[in-house]
Amino acid sequence: MQKKTVPPRWDRTMQQRLARGEAAALGELYDRFASLVHGLAHRVLGDEHAADTVTRDVFAHVWQHPGAYDPRQGPLRSWLAALTNRLAVERLRTTGTAALARGGPGTTEDLERTVRHATVAARADYIVQSMPAPLRAALELAYFQRRDYRQTAADLGVTDEEARRRLRLGLQLLATAHDAGTPGAPPRIGGAA
């Protein structure tokens, strides 16, 4: 018999508080995740005003539909990221389709390519933000400072083997950013959107 996973206490409690209509819970949720939501929306849309609108829409959706999140399906953070991605992609498609209808440049294929690229980029950002600090630090040294694994090991004060392990695992996690399923689908990062 498979053991049922128990959701983290904070996520479960937050969902219950939202379901009871506690405005303070929404404020807490906003304080904790607004920068994540806005950053992901901005990554998809590339526009500050549009990202502000999607951020507002995400938290309005949470407030209006607190039962949409099921803590047993994954972390609240992941569910919010998937919801943000879905709403941002919908907005990107809507504005892109409207621009095409007005005779703007490009084709529907160009729009879908843009949507796929934005989704993968947002997913990669989320993965990097969510990975454990030791993996993120190793990747940042290797990528941004162009360190090889030996230099990374020395900078981090770990063995060469540990540096290689961290880099390999970090890159494996990042590689999953391309596995987003159907174009425009929420990233597979947990929770039901």
From TrEMBL:
InterPro entries: RNA_pol_sigma-70-like (IPR039425), RNA_pol_sigma-70_dom (IPR014284), RNA_pol_sigma70_r2 (IPR007627), RNA_pol_sigma_r2 (IPR013325), RNA_pol_sigma_r3/r4-like (IPR013324), WH-like_DNA-bd_sf (IPR036388). It holds the Pfam family Sigma70_r2. SUPFAM superfamilies: Sigma2 domain of RNA polymerase sigma factors, Sigma3 and sigma4 domains of RNA polymerase sigma factors. Coiled coil: none annotated. Keywords: Sigma factor, Transcription, Transcription regulation. The keyword Hydrolase does not apply. The keyword Glycoprotein does not apply. NCBIfam families: sigma70-ECF. PANTHER family: RNA POLYMERASE ECF-TYPE SIGMA FACTO, RNA POLYMERASE SIGMA FACTOR SIGZ. This is Sigma-70 family RNA polymerase sigma factor.
